[in-house]
Amino acid sequence: MPTRWRPALRAAIWGLAAFIAVAMLMPAQAIPQPGGSDKLHHMLAFGALSVPAAMLYPGRVLGVVLCVIVFGGALELIQPLTGRFAEGADLIADGIGALAGVGIGLMLNRILAARTGP
After folding, report:
1. pLDDT tier at 56 (50, 70, 90 boundaries)?
2. Are 20 and 45 in contact (CB under 8 A)?
């Protein structure tokens, strides 16, 4: 991955983490209810967070997955303070999304390496 992309990947990680935190901690009545499964939304959100993290730290994918899951778990623990409910199934969905996102991030790194050369 080109070094010039590192700042953009870091910005993407922090921006996505902030967006996810706000979305998960807003009172339920204050946010629009998008269609589809809540678990699918968790998988997509935490998968999206994992993609730039895996691209930035390809040698530390286990750490990336664990950090993303711990982040999701922390948000689940805080949710009852905002009038929402913590669910273990949400945390499982977060983990599935994190694993999928890491896989996508690693594939993108390989594609970029093949296009840009050594």
Report:
1. very high
2. yes
